[in-house]
């Protein structure tokens, strides 16, 4: 697929079809690999997989004319279509233009973890590409293959990531391995800390609170569900649990404990 000569009638719009840059090029170019293509669009969806904390490359872009900077190109995810044909025109996905390895640029898709949408399955993805040249060109493309997408309705601090303030959300909260939240966490769902993760203030959760090995909450914990501390985990404040408090090997709750039951696990 191309952006450049021969755009009219192919689903692309341009007032001048890049005539300023491409006046001498043939309008019969049909393959993205053709070296005369101004900007080739290469579908990469067959190997794309997306989860909540990563990105997935769905298109590569070849700047064969050396005419564009990365900031000249933008992408928007317009809709996704699942295996049954249902269309979601507000899928909670964003698209980014990044430096490529196989092509000059990649169109990368990312879960918008604040978007409130849960996707879990195989989807065709429709993207609008805009090249802000003079004149501008807009292309709408749907992936050749269905993309495996898992975007959970959650607020995620990635592995080794840092949240400098507090988190307040109606969704689940996940702090990845060695991740850190410097403020409070208030969640309408569950709160999960990975290995050696830290929350430096209080936690209030509508669901379960789970601390992985060596994880730490330095304030109080108020949970509508169970509270589980993995091996060597620590809660420095009080715990008020609407369910059962599970304390693993060498784990500690330094404050008061209020729960339906308290279960200690031996090493």
TrEMBL record:
InterPro entries: BacA/B (IPR007607), Trimer_LpxA-like_sf (IPR011004)
Keywords per UniProt: Plasmid
Domain of life: Archaea
Protein known as: Polymer-forming cytoskeletal protein
């Amino acid at each position: 697929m191309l952006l450049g000569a021969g755009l009219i009638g192919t689903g692309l719009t341009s007032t001048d079809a890049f005539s300023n840059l491409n006046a001498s090029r043939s309008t019969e170019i049909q393959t993205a690999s053709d070296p005369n293509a101004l900007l080739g669009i290469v579908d990469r969806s067959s190997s794309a997989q997306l989860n909540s904390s990563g990105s997935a490359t769905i298109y590569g872009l070849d700047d064969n004319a050396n005419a564009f900077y990365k900031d000249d190109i933008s992408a928007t995810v317009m809709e996704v279509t699942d295996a049954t044909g249902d269309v979601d025109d507000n899928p909670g996905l964003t698209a980014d233009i990044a430096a490529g390895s196989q092509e000059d640029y990649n169109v990368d898709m990312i879960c918008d973890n604040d978007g409130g949408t849960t996707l879990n399955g195989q989807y065709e993805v429709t993207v609008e590409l805009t090249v802000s040249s003079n004149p501008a060109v807009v292309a709408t493309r749907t992936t050749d293959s269905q993309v495996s997408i898992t975007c959970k309705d959650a607020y995620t601090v990635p592995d080794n990531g840092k949240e400098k303030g507090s988190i307040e959300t109606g969704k689940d909260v996940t702090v990845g391995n060695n991740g850190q939240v410097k403020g409070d966490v208030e969640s309408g769902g569950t709160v999960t800390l990975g290995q050696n993760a830290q929350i430096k203030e209080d936690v209030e959760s509508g669901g379960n609170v789970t601390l992985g090995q060596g994880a730490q909450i330095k304030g109080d914990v108020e949970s509508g569900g169970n509270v589980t501390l993995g091996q060597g985990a620590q809660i420095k404040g009080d715990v008020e649990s609407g369910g059962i408090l599970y304390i693993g090997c060498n784990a500690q709750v330094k404050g008061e404990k209020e729960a339906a039951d308290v279960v200690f696990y031996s090493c």
